[in-house]
Amino acid sequence: MEIMSLSQILDRSIDVLRKKLKTLVLFNLAYSIIVGVIAFISIMLGAVIFGVVLSLSPSDFFMVLFISLLILVASTFAVSIYVGMISISAEEFTGYKVTVQKAISLSFKALPKIFLILIMVGISLLPAIGVFWFIIKSIVESFETNYYLNIALINASWIPLLGVPLLLMIAVSAVMLIYFSLFSFSFHAGVIEGKGAFSAIKKSIMLVRKNFWRIVLYNFVFVITVAGIRYSLQAVVSLIIGIVFLLGKLFNANSDFKVLLGGLFGILSGPINIMTWLIVTPIGGIFTTMLYYNQRFKIEGLDLELRIKKLRDTMKGNS
Question: Cα dihedral sign for 253, 259, 260, 263?
Answer without folding.
Answer: positive
